[in-house]
Specification:
The protein contains nine helices and no strands. The protein has 161 residues and is mainly α.
Length: 161
């Protein structure tokens, strides 16, 4: 009997139009329409907020912000070299969360710089971002993590000239 009451109570929660409930942070088309500057600023803000929430142990809110950061990052990755230049600039951002996200992306196209920043973040004082940085750096070094931003190897780059 109790299970029926619970099911009836939640029946009004679900929307028949789940797509209509999604925020802009989850829609790739929204990010595609932004200028590079607007997209870059959104990435900086979202990654900083994610880091603060994570360090504040507000995991549910951090998970929502994670979804936003990854959606923006996918569009940045699609934009190629222009976005890579922006990512490299963020390695010196004052926000640890932003530096973490930028460093994890940079592992794919500027590995020395990305690894340097992750190493810095992993140093004391202890933080959730620092633990994440240490774990990511270890996984990357042992080969169990492949950066999403890995550049494809062009056949011409394999020629021994």
């Amino acid at each position: 009997m109790a299970s029926r009451a619970v099911l009836r109570a939640t029946a009004g929660v679900w929307s028949p139009d789940a797509e209509g409930v999604w925020s802009h942070s989850m829609k790739a088309d929204f990010w595609k329409k932004l200028s590079m500057d607007a997209l870059a600023e959104s990435y900086r803000e979202a990654s900083a907020k994610h880091g603060r929430l994570l360090d504040g142990l507000k995991t549910r809110a951090a998970n929502k912000e994670y979804d936003r950061v990854t959606a923006i990052e996918a569009e940045l990755q699609r934009r190629g070299e222009e976005a890579q230049g922006f990512i490299l600039k963020l390695l010196d951002d004052p926000e640890p969360g932003t530096r973490f996200w930028a460093a994890s992306a940079a592992l794919g196209f500027a590995s020395a710089e990305g690894a340097r920043v992750l190493g810095e973040l992993a140093r004391p004082p202890p933080s959730q971002i620092g633990v994440s940085a240490a774990m990511l750096l270890r996984a990357w070094k042992d080969g169990s993590y492949t950066p999403k931003w890995a550049q494809p190897v062009s056949p011409g780059s394999l020629d021994p000239e």
